[in-house]
Amino acid sequence: xxxxxxxxxxxxxxxxxxxxxxxxxxxxxVLGSPSANCGGVGICRVMAYGEGVDxxxxxxxxxxxxxxxxxxxxxxxKSSMExxxxxxxxxxxxxxxxxxxxxxxxLLGGLKIEQRTIQPGIYQVWxxxxxxxxxx
Length: 136
Hints:
By secondary structure, the protein is mainly beta.
């Protein structure tokens, strides 16, 4: 006697990113382009908060996380940024990236390199309280 089982196809579940979508990583961000020695616009460098790296370029504090869609989110803290840098990088509520930047593995080790890479483009900025939020 054979017993046959019928299976029904179900759509695969939507991939969630529980590691960072529910957590935030505190970081320091140097704004600018790496090839321009941190001049210009974009993301030049991302370091762990208080890492102690002496950087002569101006830096700002940010919280890094993932959106539910898996996009990398930076919440830049306005209170840690000089006004001239806020105007240069966040004018018109847009954030421009001229060259790709890969966030270091030690900060976002649970993510693949594709998820940690900020691609060139122009990104919308949202102002929420003391934060300027950009989803890459």
